[in-house]
Amino acid sequence: xxxxxxxxxxxxxxxxxxxxxxxxxxxxxxxxxxxxxxxxxxxxxxxxxxxxxxxxxxxxxxxxxxxxxxxxxxxxxxxxxxxxxxxxxxxxxxxxxxxxxxxxxxxxxxxxxxxxxxxxxxxxxxxxxxxxxxxxxxxxxxxxxxxxxxxxxxxxxxxxxxxxxxxxxxxxxxxxxxxxxxxxxxxxxxxxxxxxxxxxxxxxxxxxxxxxxxxxxxxxxxxxxxxxxxxxxxxxxxxxxxxxxxxxxxxxxxxxxxxxxxxxxxxxxx
Length: 270
Fold this sequence. Notes:
Blueprint: H1 3-18, E1 47-54, E2 57-72, E3 75-86, E4 89-100, E5 103-108, H2 112-122, E6 127-135, E7 139-144, E8 152-156, E9 161-169, E10 176-186, E11 189-199, E12 202-221, E13 224-240, E14 244-254, E15 257-269
Antiparallel strand pairs: 1-2, 1-15, 2-3, 3-4, 4-5, 5-7, 6-9, 7-8, 8-11, 9-10, 10-12, 11-12, 12-13, 13-14, 14-15
C-alpha cells in the first residue's frame, strides 16, 4: 500500500471516530421523575425521531428517549439513549443529562467508535499500535434554561478535545510510522433569539443558539508532515423545554470544502 493512501485512510478513520460524542451508559434502579419542565431534558416515556439531512439528501434517522438514570449526590441524572441509523449501519449512543442551577448539563466522552477503531488496528497483522489516547474528555455542554435572548451555551472541558494515534505499518523492508492528531475547540454560544418554529414533528417555542467549533487534523509519516487540514463549523441549534433539540443546522468548512447538514424533529411518540 502506498504511503499517501495509508495516510488518507488513517485520517478518514479518525474523523469517523470523533463524529459522535457520547458517554458510557450508566443506568441505576432509581425511580425517575420528570425533570424540571423548564429544562431541556426530554419527557419520560416518549420517543423523539429525527431526520438527518446532508446537502439536501436524507441520509438517515435518529431516535432518542430517556431509558434510565441514577441518583448522584441528590441530583437525578437521566440516561438519554439514541439509536442512529445511517449509511447502511446502526449506532447506539448514550449521554447523561441533569439539571442544576437553572441549567441543563449534557455529558460526553470519547465515542466507543474510537476505541473500536484502536482495537481493530491492534488485530491487523503487521500493525503495531504505539500510542492511542483521548484528549480532553470527559466534558459537559451546559445550556442556560431561561428562554431569553443572550442565554448562554458553554462547555466544561479543557481548551481542546480530540485524539492522538501513533502506529507502525510493518512492510517488507520498509516499515511506516503513522501519526494522526485531531484537535477540536468548542467555542461558547449565545441564544440569538427566542423563536416559534414549525417542523414535521410539530410547532415549538425554542431558544435559538449559535456557536462555532474549530478543528485541526494532521497526519505525519515517519515524523514528517504528510497531510494537514483545518476547518470550522457554525452550528445553529433550536432547543425546546421538555424536548431538547428540535432542529440543528451545521455549516462545515473543511479543507476548503463546504457542506451543510440538518437534523430535524419529525415525530414524537408517547
